[in-house]
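Fig. S4 source data, part A: sequence.
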Amino acid sequence: MKKKKSLYSFRNDKNNFFALLGDNKKVLMPLLFIIAVALTVGIALSANHRTAQEASTEADPTQGATLEIPDGSMEENAYPEVNALIEKYYQASANGDSDTIASIYKGLEETELLKAVAAADYIEDYQNITVYTKPGPVAGSYVAYVYNEVKLYDYDKAIPGLETFYICTDDNGQIYINGDIADSSEIDYLKQINLQADVIDLNNRVATSYNDMVNSDEKLAEILTTMRSGLQVSVGEALASSEASAAESSEESEETEEETQEEGNSESSDVTVKKVTTRTIKATDVINIRKSDSETADIISKTSAGDEFKELEALANGWSKIEYNGSVAYVKTEFFEVVDEETVEVIADSESPKAATGEDNADNNASAGTTVASAVSGKMVTIDTVRLRKSQSTDAEVLEVVYKGSEVNVIEQYANGWSKVEYGKKNGYIKSEYLKKE
């Protein structure tokens, strides 16, 4: 029997409490609406679908094609296999069973998986699960809107919630939750179908029910705020532990990597071409810029109508991940329009184009699937303020802030959009798109 975590082991913050109430006053949520239980404490996971930033040389002829949006109404509990999958997912979530969650939710990011496991400490059960479905964009797929009521250990009443899932069928005929959508036409389809009247009506009904519950019960609002703080601590500690383990494993294998690389440097490698697409989006109204893809996440700033941002990722849950002040932030996609899209080809080599040192080669080989771009190296300048990071990830430790116009020495560029650079006396990684030749 799993043990619950005491909600009162954390100190309540009144400012967080009133911020929570303010954030939940919004009723219309035409795309994915995960009721604040999911948004604030991870009880229901956000889909957090990732748009692929690379495409192969031989593009899929259907990529980017416009898909027809059906007009039919949602079906209630119409597919037993879909209901069984959803039941299995919620049972695993309540139990903190990360292996089961990962096996049925393909493409779920590590942070979201850790959040699900941590949230299980507060969840007693999921009740009254009802699955509403619409046809998905490809054969054998569904868009599922799942109503559920969450029973917490320290609260008597079940709390209503709504979560959206994109469900697909694999080559073996098995269905799974798809959290890794690469086809832009599928993403556009999901955005459009989430704007249909019956979906909006369902979102509004659940949102109103939840808001009435929170606004009329100060204890519930305080519990949710406390749980949110507790989850942030738990996930942060789990990520730190995971990174430490990965670093230790990398050190143990470094000597072997150096030995094999010495042989590999003398061999020729096949050259491939990668395509990388970036988009610029413009705000159509005054919109909150938040720390994460959540209606209750901390507000960093606000846009003005007409402000433009570089979109790093268009998430299928209705949020866009953007570059903001040298870091990452999130905005609601529906309030932005695409004003520019650029696709560039990057010449990539499967190994380093130069006989690198053992240290450099260990870094390259530690990045699974990374290929090194052979076209550009040497002195370059930054076109904007950017952060120098310890590894090729926007979640990696920040080593230094590199201001606009600073000169860096590019050691190697990678086809995944990152460059290894030397700045001052530090070696680290920054996004290649922020570099240009002097």
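Fig. S4 source data, part B ends here. The mean pLDDT is 74.
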